[in-house]
TrEMBL record:
Pfam families for the chain: Ig_2 (PF13895)
PROSITE patterns registered for this protein in UniProt: IG_LIKE (PS50835)
SUPFAM superfamilies: Immunoglobulin
Residues annotated as transmembrane: none
InterPro entries in alphabetical order: Ig-like_dom, Ig-like_dom_sf, Ig-like_fold
Superkingdom of source: Eukaryota
Name of the protein: Ig-like domain-containing protein
Species per Swiss-Prot/TrEMBL record: Mytilus coruscus (Sea mussel)
Lineage summary: Eukaryota, Metazoa, Spiralia, Lophotrochozoa, Mollusca
Domain called Ig-like: residue spans: 1-86
Signal peptide boundaries: none
Length: 101
């Protein structure tokens, strides 16, 4: 299972206000897998195609440090295969003004 663009410490960086695509891929098999994106114990996207599921979100400060879990399940598994990623939402910073004394 792979989450696109994740770092070694399982995080994804995004600037607040930007659109982020969470992309999770698995090697498709038989029986066919059911893919889900989950956050806060809620399934926010289910489905996918050819072993890939994508969830788009407009990153906000409330998403900072939020955990998103990709889950893959099929009839042959007793428990789903999961991988999680944490969002690091960078704020929109203004350039500090140079004060002249």
């Amino acid at each position: 299972m792979k989450i696109t663009n994740e770092t070694q410490n399982n995080t994804l960086q995004v600037v607040e206000g930007n659109i982020l695509q969470l992309v999770c891929s698995v090697q498709s098999g038989k029986p066919k897998e059911i893919l889900q994106w989950i956050t806060d114990t809620t399934v926010i996207k289910e489905g996918g195609q050819n072993g890939t599921i994508t969830y788009r979100l407009n990153a906000s400060s409330s998403d900072h440090m939020k955990i998103f879990i990709c889950s893959a399940m099929n009839e042959a598994l007793y428990h789903p295969i999961t991988k999680q990623v944490r969002l690091d939402v960078l704020g929109l910073f203004t350039t500090p003004k140079n004060d002249i004394i």
